[in-house]
Predict the 3D structure of the following.
Amino acid sequence: MISVEEALRRILARTPRLPAETVGLGEARGRVLREDVFADRDLPPFHRSAVDGYAVRAACLAGGGRLRVVDQIPAGTMPRVPLGPGEAAAVMTGAPLPEGADAAIMVEDTVRDGDFVVWPAPGKTPPAVAPGSRVTARGAEVVRGAKLLEAGVRVSPAGVGLLATVGKVRVEVGRRPRVAVFSTGDELRHPRTERPRPAQIRDANSHMIAARCRALGLPVRRLGFAADDPGHLAATTAAGLAGDALFITGGVSMGRYDYVEPVLEEAGVRLLVTAVAIRPGKPFVFGIREGSRPVFVFGLPGNPVSALTTFEVFARPALDALQGIADPRPPRPLVRLLAPVSNRGPRRAFLPARVGVSDDGTLTAQPIRSQGSGDIAAVALANALVIVPEDAEGIPAGASAEAQPLPGFPDAGAGWHDPRR
Ligand code: AMP
Ligand code: MG
């Protein structure tokens, strides 16, 4: 049995970046950049008015003034005439300032008097106008040629806006791993089964892991579930090895019918991790089917909480690494425990919890009452896994603990309650 760190190290050492591909703006969000992005022009590209109002020479308005309006400049239009002393040009937000102007004043602070504008309007006391007031100078935000985004980061919606701004309509991103998922177990039935027999259960895992992968933006093939039968497992595994990553749940423990490991080895998968000091999830398996296009195989334990935990701790960083994320190790924010948590050692425990933001702005974690690794009802309520170190018997209420964020982290407030109570 190896440590969580050692397992993750082995996995990340073997999950090199997949090749890059070019996508358009519409597909860029959530993808991992594989090239640096530079500014193709200054931003703003001209001295830009930040207000609807008038472009002025600040010096002409010391203590107030009356200026002749010589031009009207909508956004998107170049000024027709330079500004002389005693002159103003009506400008709209985003319009270029005419030559000779060095500031803008807000229309609300003025009154118009025919061809003239008077500042300040009677009864108004706006702040003094200085050179640069309410103007964003050319290049103040970004200088042409500057690096704006770096390879190895995920493109956010604002990042898409930035790509559009610099005319980068085709961008190099990491190819997304194509993922296949199936679960195993003679006891499994399709969720649509209306009356499972007493010893049967509905397949949660293949749906859960497929949903998680889809939430990560990955193309997913869900292959349903396979029986605890070497032949059936081998056939489903062969179908699953067609992509870049395969997730199998169940059948990796010490049970009489746990055939996944021998079936994987038979299929040419070299197993690099076969047990980890993690709770829940000890039987977790990782292997690679080498070849011109390697396939990364994750054998997740069948208990749904174990499957989710090992996915988050081991598979998620690997999926990020494959796309080219510079540092795929998940963040481990500190949270203040609202109730004690315990660990039976000597494994590292990951416990479902609900993390919210308390009134003083700190993160607080409410551990979720759970019957253990089979309790999907508990983990479905979690937005984080609180981590209890290998050598700790527990962490008392009020103390800080590291947490691994799950989707929905953190809640807006600390006022979460368990609907099962
Ligand atoms: P296994 O890892 O195959 O020994 O399964 C461990 C436990 O998880 C057993 O109680 C299984 O019934 C349960 N389990 C396995 N696969 C699934 C699944 N796809 N959905 C829900 N529970 C499962
Ligand atoms: Mg099983």
